[in-house]
Amino acid sequence: MTLTGVIDDHVLARYRALLDAEDAAFNELEHAYEEGDRDHFQADLEAWRCAIAAKLAYLNRMGIHLGT
Q1: Residue 20 placed within a domain
Q2: What is the torsion angle, in degrees rounded to the nearest 10, for the CA atoms of residue 6, residue 7, residue 13 and residue 19?
Q3: Is 7 or 54 the better-scoring residue by pLDDT?
Q4: Is the pLDDT score of 1 beyond 70?
Q5: Does some domain include residue 39?
Q6: In sequence order, what DSSP letters do the residues of the chain get, joined into one string?
Q7: How many domains does the chain have?
Q8: Is the CB of residue 41 less than 8 Å from the CB of residue 32?
Q9: How far is residue 19's CA from residue 53's CA, in Å, rounded to a whole number?
Q10: CB 3.0–4.6 Å: which of 5, 27, 29, 36 could bond 44 by disulfide?
Q11: Per-residue pLDDT for 10 more than 60?
């Protein structure tokens, strides 16, 4: 992990909002799974993937690179 920028309250607030969006998307995905609702499950899975992608893109823009 490398860090090129400064982490301040704005960065943390934005990251918290992204985490909350990911959590909400996962909760919807979990609910659709438990209900056996295949159509909603597929849509919720895509929403969860998008939330994760947005979080990772933000981290990347902040200079936090998660290598594999």
Answers
A1: yes
A2: 120
A3: 54
A4: no
A5: yes
A6: ----S---HHHHHHHHHHHHHHHHHHHHHHHHHHHT-HHHHHHHHHHHHHHHHHHHHHHHHTT-----
A7: 1
A8: yes
A9: 11
A10: 29
A11: yes
* pLDDT for the residue 4: 54
Mean pLDDT value across residues 49-54: 98
Which residues constitute the domain of residue 43?
A: 9-61
Structural domain contains residue 42: yes
Is residue 4 included in any domain, yes or no?
no
Structure tokens at 62: 């902040």
Angstrom distance (rounded) from CA 17 to CA 4: 21
Rounded to whole angstroms, what are the CA distances from 43 to 9, 11, 20, 26, 54? 33, 29, 18, 11, 17
pLDDT band at 26 (very low <50, low <70, confident <90, very high): very high
Which one, of 9, 6, 1, lies nearest residue 62 by Cα? 6
